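@channel anyone free to eyeball this complex?
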Amino acid sequence: MQMIKQKVGARVRELRNQKGLSQEKLALAADIDRTYIASVESGKRNISIVNLEKLIIALDTSFAEFFEGM
Amino acid sequence: MQMIKQKVGARVRELRNQKGLSQEKLALAADIDRTYIASVESGKRNISIVNLEKLIIALDTSFAEFFEGM
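replying in thread with the prediction:
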């Protein structure tokens, strides 16, 4: 059941790398602490939808695109 | 920014009604408290992805289908 945390983390990392953003830059854009982003990307964080929305906006994507294929 | 809570709530209610499930039945299937589901559906709850995954599985859908168009 906890796989979703790893899948979301991998997707954040994938989109961040595609956009050529460092964790620091994404953290600044999303107004979220860099260490929080590191824990999301490593699949350790049970992120809330409001924080996920901040990341999705900062990554210039949508919930639909983010969860494509999940 | 907080609109996502209302959108997710409306989508849970829409899918639940489509499947002809009461909040009690969905709560049982998802192993989540009924009052929690009521607060999600009314847009008050900043749900985590692990709890959202429980609802998505209980609604027999996927993250991709759940967030279609969002």
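from a first look: Chain B touches chain A through 21 residues (CB under 8 Å).
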